Amino acid sequence: MATATSRPFQIRVAAPVGGLPAWASPTALPPGTFREVGLNTMDQARPPFAHFPSGCLVATLANWCSAAFIGDFSPRGGVAYWGGGEHGCDNASYPVVMIWNAETRLFEYACAAKVPHFQFTSNKACANTDPTDDWGHWLSDGGVQPIHSYNGLAEYPSAWGGGPRGSLLCGARKYSHSHTRQAPGWNHTMSFNLSFQINPGTRIGGIANYVDGPNPTEGGEYVGCCKDTLRQGWWSTIADGYVRRILFTHKSGTITATAEGMLSYAPGCSLHHFPDVDALTIFRPFNAALFFGLKRLSPEQKTSWIPLSQVVNGTAMALDANGTPRLVEDGPRWSSLAKRFVWLRSLNAPGNSRDATPHVCSLIPSDPNNVVGSTWSYHIEAVTPADASAIAPNMDAASFNGSLGKLVEIPSLRAFAWTRSHLHRTQLIRPSWMPMS
After folding, report:
1. Residue 210 CB: number of other CB atoms within 10 A?
2. CB 120 within 8 A of CB 95
3. Which pLDDT tens digit goes with each residue over 409-427?
4. 44 and 380 in contact (C-beta within 8 Å)?
5. Global pTM?
6. Which is the most buried residue in 120, 132, 172, 354, by most CB within 10 A?
7. Residue 68: C-alpha distances to residues 31, 42, 76, 117, 416 (Å)
8. Which CATH superfamily hosts domain 29-430?
9. Where are the domains of the chain?
């Protein structure tokens, strides 16, 4: 098995980040606008190997994949992207994590495979994977083959053992493609140490990249994931057919599970943990209406599903072709600055006409200090360009199949990072309601 190759890094002294740089100032990026700020594209920064041809990283954005903020990656953090595949894994999957560095404004790569990874067949183990282990590692380098990450990506911080520049974690899910564990319920949690450019991804950072699920007959392909700072681990939802479970992966690698009929799942559902009240929130669609589930974990207290009307404050929520609110596939993320769930809308409402202009949507609690007892309101805002760049959710790779949590808050920049495609530079979006102090 190949030896991991580290990337050079500098020791960074923890200190408060200073004021906004000129390229992210209110003058350059007025509230309610967006601007291109990246200095290269994801495609330009791809690994320098022949098996990463130009254009290959479209799957990392387009194929039902997500992103996560990594606070340790640079003084201003970074946004990590991982995923690919279709119907398990296929040759649209390229094993690499791409990270936009919010300090240098450059894309970098991590955890790249030095050799090609070949196509799986119908979710079965590939002949090129190790036939003797439980993980389905590739014989050539022990690497991990990307598949859909949905809303299943989260930060694995340095303080928990995630490495000097942090790690990216994909919540517990199925499809290990192991010869010895071909059952759909073979669940695993994957982590990627972003301090390494070349890394087989084997049991790094003190957590196994693949961790056995509680029951080999149950598992999940549609994964959502969020970090729990109280327990130092990650919650994830899984679903395979009508099996519904919530899993918790501790940083040590231990997985526990709870059958959860109320807070079940939605395809690629979005999760968030509120540490101040120890509550877990989950979005899901049901019977052509959106429901918002909240569960107090300690003391344990289940709430009923909270129906969110398709029309809130007189504005219709986006619906998909089945008449279901699109919000789940757009991946609402909690804004630590604005105290609301935020996402980039990928479909227009009513109906399923595609959004040709960018709209930032919010779900706002009546009392941010009491989310358990809050009522929630919906807000939508069209954002306009502050430069010559554009965002076209109806055509861009990052939003065509749902934006899936790829609108990522950069707290030190008082804005959200958005990468519309592998061929375009990263943009910042600053909604009109973003606090500037």
Report:
1. 27
2. no
3. 999 999 999 999 999 999 9
4. no
5. 0.86
6. 172
7. 23, 15, 14, 24, 12
8. TolB, C-terminal domain (2.120.10.30)
9. 29-430
